[in-house]
Amino acid sequence: MNEKRWIVRAALTPEQDKTAHDLAQAISTTSFLSALLVQRGITDFESARDFFRPELSHLHDPFLMQDMEVAVERLCEAMANGEKILVYGDYDVDGTTSVALFYGFLRKIYDKLDYYIPDRYSEGYGVSWQSIDWAEANGFTLIVTLDCGIKSIDKVTEAKKRGIDFIICDHHRPGSELPPAVAVLDPKREDCKYPYKELTGCGVGFKLLHAFCLHNGQELDLLYEYLDLLVVSIAADIVPITGENRVLAYYGLQRLNDTPCTGIKALIQIAGFTTALDITKVVFGLGPRINAAGRIKHAKEAVRLLLCDDEDEATAFAFEINKHNTERRTFDTSITEEALSMIQQDGWLSQAKSTVLFKQDWHKGVVGIVASRCIEHFHRPTIILTHSNGKATGSARSVPGFDVYEAIEECADLLEQFGGHTFAAGLTLPVENVEAFRLKFEEIVTSRILPEQLVPMIEIDLELQLEAINWKFYNVLRQMGPFGPGNMLPVFVSHEVQVAGRPTIMKSKHIKFEVYQGDSPAFTVIGFSMAHLYPDLMSGKPFSICYQLEENNFRGNKSLQLGLKDVKF
After folding, report:
1. Radius of gyration of the CA atoms of the chain, in A
2. Minimal CB count within 10 Å: which of 28, 71, 142, 162?
3. 426 forms bridges with which residues in the sheet?
4. pLDDT per residue over 424-481, tens digit each?
């Protein structure tokens, strides 16, 4: 593992410093906290009020989205004419929560409705030919896609010939041509003036229902009941928690913690959460369990759970899905070990700037997870491929600052299908093209990636004196959440700290010790998988730490502790 780079945010300019000083007085907080807020673009009382107290009234007018009016008109027309509507979603967390939200809301006011999730293995990502055949055979005349469809030009064209219209709700980058749908809702369309571009697929579906409610005079409170599903999509899809997403996540977490739907409540119980959920707990606790249904079995199970009203049935579903998740973890661990071994044993690959691995029998459902795990060890753009339906198919993940989607797009001549975002993408190609793709992808990455992007980094918000840490400081810090991409839990650095007493090694790989700085109180520090620091910590020399501030609640005793990110001696 490479030594990490510490990237400390630039110090405030004299002008920003004055802004921070004025802000500290306006909202009665410390200079450290006001500096953090100014770094995040919060510069006066009004913006601080909106940041700390988001309101659902801050959501944008959904009709600002390109094609929204025509989408709402077509949906209303279908309902007025008694047409059969099919709600179609991808098999990941964003797709399944999208379907549960959209179908769950509409079924309360309309009954000629069904939903469809493609099979990950036999149909693959996006709109499938099988689904169009099924829709035609069952008399559906309108399909609403969620979290997919932006590149399904051939499928939408064929469906149109068969008398089936599409409304596409997607958030992936469009290609140069849009599908011939009745409406294409995607804030990333170049001609879309919608002010916020980072919605999830579930978020775009939510905005269509938002517009539908406004058009028909429906109470928005009925739609807001589904914000628990929307926050799960926001967390699991790792989108920025800024702007509109932050408002939706803020209220979504409230709903998730106070009155979650029956299915999510069952998942929370089976995951063993006893304290309030935040974005991190959703990402690592709920997301993988919902995903496991589509990875190991069929994602329809996840939608059934999310739509379930019966507590006993939900508990039984959650138990099944939890079993899938345990199975998924077994695949994930063994395939990751195999992938890392392949890199280490290949002289060329171990020195490359990218990783492209292909193995016939890897489980298609975990290749994205394995790509992320490989990046933890070899910090570079990574693609993990397996064999499915006669093709090589898989997932790409990237490192901060490098656009893996663009790099894949440069190799389009070798691919049959691809789509995704800056940091994550999916792709399919003929098996015989894998080696040529590996070489071309490596060439493109080598020509574009900066040396520093190949070294893991820790972004540090602020230098902090340990004496500034107290409960008042922490309580204001906590209110800056929900934390996630674009609004991360702040990382602090403190220099010239010293160890108080003797460090403790826990479970042979973690370390716990106390530090102080000058006359400050001593704080407990927890370093996961950092037992190797023990000899240096025993040297008695001062050192620097970067960390996040955490609350430790042990048997009802609350204390503040430092979650260690790294140490420099």
Report:
1. 25
2. 28
3. 395, 419
4. 899 999 999 999 999 999 999 999 999 999 999 999 999 999 999 999 999 999 999 9
Structure tokens at 42: 């919060």
Strand partners, 526: 512, 563
Contact of 547 with 560, CB cutoff 8 Å: no
Distance of CA 566 to the CA centre of its chain: 24
pLDDT of residue 331: 85
Distance CA 567, CA 546 (A): 6
Calpha distance 20→25 (Å, rounded) = 9
Q: What is the mean pLDDT of residues 158-175?
A: 96
pTM score, whole prediction: 0.88
Q: What is the C-alpha separation between 154 and 416, in angstroms, rounded? A: 13
Whether omega before 180 lies within 30 degrees of 0, making that bond cis, reads no
Find, among 307, 292, 260, 262, the residue nearest to 114 by Cα: 307
Contact 165, 193 (CB under 8 A): no
Question: Distance between CA atoms of 159 and 87, rounded to whole angstroms?
Answer: 15
> Tell me, what amino acid is at 88?
Y
Q: What does the pLDDT look like over 79-104, one tens digit per residue?
A: 999 999 999 998 889 999 999 999 99
Give the span between the Cα atoms of 65 and 60, in whole angstroms. Answer: 9
Other residues' Cβ atoms within 10 Å of the Cβ of residue 316 = 14
Host H or E run for residue 567: strand 557-568
> Is the separation of the CB atoms in 181 and 168 below 8 Å?
yes
How high is the pLDDT of residue 556? 81
pLDDT at 330: 87
Q: What is the pLDDT of residue 295?
A: 66
In the DSSP assignment, the letter for residue 361 is T
CA distances from 364 to 14, 41, 101, 127, 369 (A): 53, 41, 27, 18, 10
- Per-residue CA distances from 522 to 202, 417, 498, 499, 516 (Å): 45, 56, 9, 9, 5
The string over 177-188, giving b where at least 16 C-beta atoms fall within 10 Å of a residue's C-beta and e elsewhere, is ebbebbbbbbbb
What are the pLDDT digits (tens) for 379-429?
999 999 999 889 999 999 999 899 999 999 999 999 999 988 888 899 999
pLDDT of residue 445: 97
Q: If we measure between CA atoms, which residue out of 417, 427, 372 comes closest to residue 395?
A: 427
**Alpha-carbon dihedral of residues 105, 107, 112, 113, nearest 10 degrees?**
60
- The backbone torsions φ and ψ at residue 492, rounded to the nearest 5 degrees and listed phi first, read -110, 155
